[in-house]
Amino acid sequence: MPKILAIEDDPDMLLALRMSLEANGYEMVAATTAREGLRKVKEVEPDLIILDVMLETTTAGFQASLQLRNPDPESEYAAYRHIPILMLTAIHTTTSLRLGPNEAYLPVDDFVDKPVDPDVLLEKVRTLIERSY
Amino acid sequence: MDLEQVLACLTDGARQVLQADAATVCLLDEGGAHLTVAAVSGLPAALLRVGAGSPRPYMVEHSPLNGEALTGQPVIVADTRADPRAANVPGDYRSVLCVPLMHEDDPVGTLHVYAAVPQRFDEEDAVLLMSLAGLGAVAIAAIRLVLSLSKQLTAMKALEASKAHFIHVATHELRSPVAVAQSLMRGVLKGYAGELADEQAELFNRINRRLNFLESLINDLLDLAAGKAPELAEEEGPVLLNASVGRAMLFLQPRAEEKGLDMTLQSHRDRLIVWGTEDGLDRIFVNLMSNAVKYTPSGGAITVSVRRVEGQAQVEVTDTGIGIPEEAFSHMFEEFYRAPNAKAMDEVGTGLGLAIVKDLVDRYSGHIEVESKVGQGSTFTVTFPTLVGW
Questions:
Q1: I need a labelling partner for A130 at 20 to 30 A (CA). Which of A37, A80, B4, B37 fits?
Q2: Domain spanning B3-151 has what CATH number?
Q3: By the 8 A CB rule, do B91 and B114 touch?
Q4: Chain A within 8 Å of B338 (Cβ-Cβ)?
Q5: Residue B305 to residues B262, B268, B315, B320, B383: CA-CA distances in angstroms?
Q6: Which residues 64-83 of B are in CB contact (within 8 Å) with A?
Q7: What is the average pLDDT value for chain B, to the nearest integer?
Q8: Do B3-151 and B234-390 share a fold?
Q9: B279 touches chain A (CB under 8 A)
Q10: What is the pTM of this model?
Q11: What is the per-residue pLDDT across B329-346, written as a single tens digit (0 to 9) for each?
């Protein structure tokens, strides 16, 4: 059963993610801060990370993604760099037209908009996990 | 030019024209009971307590010379030593001519010229100084008006900005819980929290629709607030109009197809550069095109054209939709207004889309026009000045 680590500070949003993921054969582990999330990456070794942008600070999610994708081979997260990251965003219609994952800007693999649509979420999760194997 | 400069011109000018030794201007306060020396020429400033701190106002009734002049008449003092009205004249001046500064029949102050010798000023001088004082009074009134207007403008801008900031913060706080509720509701509707009975599904669908409406209302308010608070908006600059229309087209085309609408783009080959922000322009065209998609029954057509017209960039969005009734024309750009036929067709609209479009078009010095017939369709034409040399 693929394991997904969801790093998100809103317990109800975690519940919404858990509902959709567990009903579709995934195991979900939750973390509510970027710090806890980074610790659980090592503990759980998930197949995918779902990461919120605003956590303990307004950019803690961005910071966490930068740490996880640090290109330095000596980085403490070097062994976890291959884990796909799906970022949760709250950017609505217009701006999402132009915002796409970009190595230089934001090292994540894809975005999913809040409010989360289960079909969209599950499709992205499936694609990213398949791609990483 | 500020008030100080105008008053300096006035005193220097009066001295020159009348070949006097000194000149002063006193301004009346709002209540009309106090005068303050506001400018001097040819006099030691210290004598009038000008310059060293602010000059002290004095009562009009303690100055017979000023008091008389403020009734609207020039006052000639032939010899200060023989005239009791000249008790407060500074220095050793022997002749004084004092005229009122009148603006539209109201005195705003007095203008004085002084000479060291007695018998220096006559009636002709008085007429000359009166006409100079008339010009001075107009200039003073004009500058005071500008000052009070700019104060009001600053206060209005501050109010507008704080209002917009409040809306911005409030909407951010509102969006988050609504997005969470929607996410939960969508999972429930998919049956991931257990199978739903028909009646439950129907009720949850209703809740879901209301949440979706709330989401679009909040997003629209956020856009409107962002547009109205300059410090929150992306910095304006030259933007490629064709690209913005293209992005909006990409965004809306799938929805048009889903609904069975024929949506086409006729784009000018020229690069049309206009002044604005990418987000703002995207928003304008997404709003106009999504209205076209929303209010055109399936089987209809939407044509978007981009062209250069008389040196301006023009985008036209034409649909074969339900049209806009005449009574709605004067209201359609108002916040929260929705035309009756639009309301009847779709319950989700917020009535903010066109208000946002209008607000943004105005900000970018553009122009929007609408032609429409109920049952036949609508054409929205947006025109922007193009930038050359970018």
A1: A37
A2: 3.30.450.40
A3: yes
A4: no
A5: 14, 8, 6, 15, 12
A6: none
A7: 87
A8: no
A9: yes
A10: 0.55
A11: 899 998 888 888 888 887
